[in-house]
Amino acid sequence: MGTSYALEPDDRTLRGHFSPDFPPVLSVDPGDSVRVRTLDAWWSTGPYLGDDVAERPRVPQYREGYGHALTGPIEVRGAQPGMVLEVRVDAVVPDVWGTCALAQPELNARYGLPPAGTVHDWTLDPVAMTGRNQHGHTVGLRPFLGIMGMPPPEPGLHPTFPPRRHGGNLDCKDLVAGSTLYLPVPVEGALFSVGDGHAAQGDGEIGGTAIECPMRRVDLRLDLRDDWALDTPVAHTPSGWLAFGLAEDLDTATARALDAMFALIGRLHEVSRADAVMLASVAVDLRITQIVNGVVGVHAVLPPGAIR
């Protein structure tokens, strides 16, 4: 049994970028657990009933030019480039409010909407797992963290918006409690951060936001693997095994997701690449992760029990 820690979003732990230069706010051993609380993506202090998310009240730590509110970074002792960080998601509990907004003018133009965005303010029930907006629409909740990841190895500040091979803004709705995310480690110590809580989201995140919400509690167990060479995120979720492809276009992202899935099937079932391709053709589904972060995402899904 490892040691358990807790992190709150405060002056010491909040960051608006990824960077290998940030000192860790917590150091843990492989196998330790961390309970994390996160802000919503906009660094909000609470719900705001209005039409402009940019005008919502924010915590004092927010500065112009910041991206998502990240809690971290967490050092995992012994982590080295070439290893795999194993992130087991044991619990994800949202707060009681959230927001969905058409906050990107280029997306509004894509859908033939005026530049000023529409905002849906949601009241969330973490017990019943439902959300209700100001217009009376109700949806089921399936909370997850949009961002779990590590910084690129290059020095300096890196934006939080694009997903990367070592995680970050994956925005994959399947990374719910009960999932384990596997990420290639890019820097010594891993320097893992989390944020961008989503109470509910559809595949693609087509409007640019999910129900963006703070998370009251996220329980994570962090471990290291040195027996697996990964080049892109892979996850084991209640929906099955996922292999991610990330690129500037969907065709390239799809090819990368499939390459990772073929390798995964070969590892799981001890078959050749040719056999993995044929098995994938009858057992694997392709899904669009998100199309709104500049770098788009596709994930290949091997459902539970699809290959026996």
UniProtKB/TrEMBL annotation:
It comes from the Bacteria. Gene3D superfamilies: Acetamidase/Formamidase-like domains. This is Acetamidase/formamidase. One of its GO terms (molecular function) is hydrolase activity, acting on carbon-nitrogen (but not peptide) bonds, in linear amides.
